[in-house]
């Protein structure tokens, strides 16, 4: 990993961490964006309106024109209750506050008139008493609101049962309530709060609290009480999370189970507002009685009484963007429970979204830095599409609310930042490296240079190299028989085939010198087992040349076989960019280079195609090597011990070669001692060599004329000369 990549990864991960922390803190802007996403889902696929037994008796503009301004006297509301009861309403819920005495009651009006005998007051009717009498024994549910004054708490008409921990601390808190008239409170079948979004600054009602709590007692909302009373149920069953106090997971009302948030809120799944939900109050109170259609609609229905008149200011905004009467949302709450179509946002959704931001962001940083921005972009787009599709399918089929927006936006920011950094820093360095080394190195080695810090530096660097020289045998003779164009074609065919093995074995092609190749290993970056890789390349060249000759790739026929000599040496050399600032060449110079070149020249004298120095041979344990003698190389005052590379480790471990190696060792010892037994060992070695490779018999025939190469020589000072 290069320094630039390290910095890029750190910056990218820092951005990912910042975005993850931002999402975990869930600022209002992100919450608003998430809510808008869920609103859009509902607008695309709202809950379908079903003609369920839930109706709204609407105190609309027509009703106000018919019976006068609001509030109406409560004896009229008593008539409304009587009419609805006669029609068979299963529950009658008032989205109306009854906090003060009816100011239109005759008893109240007369009390304020001067000169009226107080004894007459008891003989005058009281609308609150009339209304209280009307609701007695009927399934009437009254509503209460929240107040910041006093300490009034309404009666709770139902019991509560809990499974799991006590969830009393989960719902929104109630400090005080708007008081109900005592006679109304006592006679009502149910009492529920009418607050739709207490404490929520948003004008859009997306979820309604099914309960409020003072820390000990729970207070149901109007819709829930209406559903309970309609079923004749007496108890709410609340399921809490195991070992997690103050958490609600589910509410059971009679036969219905309702999934809720941990705070006991129900996500509203809204239908478009429709006239089929409403019945005008004037039609119920019509002097001649309601029509049969209205009677059928009311019969068996849960009826909510409220107002849509604009002047009464009970208009709310839904997730669909519609402005509707607040009473209709109570009705929709019951409709949703009856239909069984719920929306829910699991408690683990936040954790999943936070984890997805961290995981997706980290993946994009890694892909952008180490692979390519294009691949990262494709992966990012795929993840985006998958997130959107998964979120939509979860909503559409299961009613689950997962936010795709935060991970997508975070991923986009991360990808943009990582791509920008790579384009400005990392890719600039890589473009320079590729331009300089693209023609000389294997793709794998070039990749390592790109990802290694300071792999490319101008100037020289002393390091151990394994250097190889390859030369064509009898090239002068071959070129005399060919035209210049044919010579070029011949060299291109041969050198291209041979040089491929340098690249394939992580070597660096230094240069082509006429009919020769110079290559080295272990620069510009470290190459493990570089001597092994160089010899592997040489053995592969031998096989490739044999195949080219067999296939007559050069067009010379059987009478002319092309041969090569390969010299390999491992030693210290200076390697780097050398030349002028405007034109340079990456190359190696030094004694190691000189020796490798001289070893290649010695292949003719030894009559073998691959020779390595003793320093290289020491790094090739197990290879099929045979000592070729200590030769006096040009420019060197001391003789250099060379080894013939017969084959690799497989051949080196074979029984045939081990036998030859033993005979060869005896032959070398006899030659050193100038013993006459050398002829016998040589004869045996020739016979053994025929079974191993075709190149060895000539090698042994030449040994008898090179006896001096195996005689020990006194040590002399080493000298280096340029090639």
From TrEMBL:
Superkingdom of the organism of origin: Bacteria
Guanylate cyclase domain ranges (all copies): 466-600
UniProt cross-references to SMART domains, sorted A to Z: CHASE2 (SM01080), CYCc (SM00044)
Record-level GO BP terms: cyclic nucleotide biosynthetic process; intracellular signal transduction
PROSITE patterns noted in UniProt: GUANYLATE_CYCLASE_2 (PS50125)
SUPFAM superfamilies reported in the protein's UniProt record: Nucleotide cyclase
Record-linked Pfam families: CHASE2, Guanylate_cyc
Keyword Membrane: yes
Membrane-spanning segments: 348-367, 374-399, 405-425
Keywords carried by this UniProt record: Membrane, Transmembrane, Transmembrane helix
GO MF: adenylate cyclase activity
Gene3D superfamilies: Nucleotide cyclase
Protein name: Adenylate cyclase
Lineage start: Bacteria, Pseudomonadati, Pseudomonadota, Alphaproteobacteria, Hyphomicrobiales
